[in-house]
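General statements about sequence and structure are easier to judge against a single worked case. For one protein, we set the task of working out the structure tokens from the amino acid sequence alone. The sequence in question and its structure tokens are set out directly beneath this paragraph.
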Amino acid sequence: MPDLDALAPNYHRAQQRWADAPTLARCYESLNACFNGNAHGLVEHVKSFIESACLTIMGEFRAPMPSAQPSTTDLLVAALDPLGLKNTRGAIKLDKVLSGFNRLADAIGDMRNETGPVAHGKDGFLDAIAADHARAFLHAGDAILGILLNAFEGKQPDLIATREPYESFPHLNERIDRAVAVEARIDEDADRPIVVFSVATGPRGEAIELRVEPSRLLYGIDREAYVEVLKTAELAVAEDEEGEEPEAEASAGEADEAPAPGIGPAEGPVTELVAEYRGGLAALRGGVEAFLQAEGVDPAIAGADGVLLIDSLLATAEQNMGLDWKQREAMRAKLKVACKRVLVRLGCAAEKADAVADRFVSWLRVQAPDAPPAAPVPAVLEQGAQA
């Protein structure tokens, strides 16, 4: 058989007309695969494709369903109606043409019931569909799709219901942009900032006020900006929430863990972002790499200015270890917060970073020495700072 698009081009044309419609795309893929295979179930695919196109057009114009269980012909009539092709029962000559398309739709339904082996089981000894019959099915469906697509071109769908993108209506967009006056402000009285747009037409036009969250605005207009802001927001929230963890842990064990002079640093979590680490924990490098791989974190992650994940974790661990850190819960909590900050700053999601940091501290508790290195070699090319 020749190529489907060459023999019956309107199937591909319909799929391209609504390129973002997943069901129609899947219908086209299935029809193409069936046509290029043994054509088993071809008539069912043709019928399904036509009905999908009809329902898509009906949705663009908010046309009601003709019945609870409409036939292919019912859907075709309902789709042609908002396109200006309504059968007037003989009032105009066009009715004969429309009746012809209705009969084609009826015939496809009849062929599906009579010869379609997929929709209904058939006698196992019936002959498979012949090539010339397959072409007849395809041409019938192609003709129906042709009149639907040609009638749809140039028609403006219901702007409230349409799935067409904003770019499909440049003339309408320009008309609005030229006619309106816009004012914008930020409402900070609520629990989160709200961007408020006031849009009015003419000197006496009543303003329409639109209120939208910054996140919704970014998500709808610039998805890349949304992701970038999300990364920054995750880090800020993580630091705000985690900064309280050591304090809470210390309060819980305050009675029996009051630090004595020289026991360890009293400051908060210290985050070290470095490009190279040569300190007393350097021997753990291979183990940290294996740990990160087991956690599903790429150990080769690098940040700005060459900052490396493994080196930063080891440097951060060294800076937050104190005497008896393995026995002191508050110190382990501080170490977890610092390590989580490293993971988040190098691209790990906050929730995953929390779990990985918790297990990393447990891993260090087994693998690292009981006390911090006596004379650590300073980390070089340091890019981070104390949190």
User: Anything to note?
Assistant: The chain has three domains: 4-152, 169-212, 226-259+269-382. The mean pLDDT is 83. Residues 226-259+269-382 form one domain. The first strand starts at residue 180 and ends at 187.
